[in-house]
Write a structure and sequence with these properties.
By secondary structure, this protein is mainly alpha-helical. The protein has helices at 9-31, 36-43, 47-54, 63-72, 77-88.
């Protein structure tokens, strides 16, 4: 039974996966020795937004932003998602067309 105001298990899994995606992006940036400013220049995403995402002040940055950041990091989205799933423990499945 769903309790009022309590997120469903699926919603919690999606949130956990989103947090893991953001963490993997930050790790990729740091591993590449790239500053937030440089990532901003390459991705077209403001440095302020990148900082808020990495600090978890933005919990759902949206697909376009994630794709732009991943692209600037030369990190294919399928690799990013695979890494995020592995570390999040989230059982969320993403449908492909």
């Amino acid at each position: 039974m769903q309790h009022p105001g309590r997120p469903t298990r699926e919603a919690r899994s999606r949130e956990e996966l989103a947090r893991s995606v953001v963490a993997r992006l930050r790790e990729a940036r740091e591993s590449a020795g790239m500053t937030r400013r440089r990532l901003s220049e390459l991705s077209g995403v403001s440095g302020h937004t990148i900082a808020k995402i990495e600090q978890a002040a933005v919990t759902d940055p949206g697909f376009a932003v994630v794709a732009a950041i991943a692209g600037a990091l030369e990190l294919p989205l399928d690799d990013l998602l695979r890494r995020a799933r592995r570390t999040s423990g989230a059982g969320v499945r993403v449908r492909s067309s």
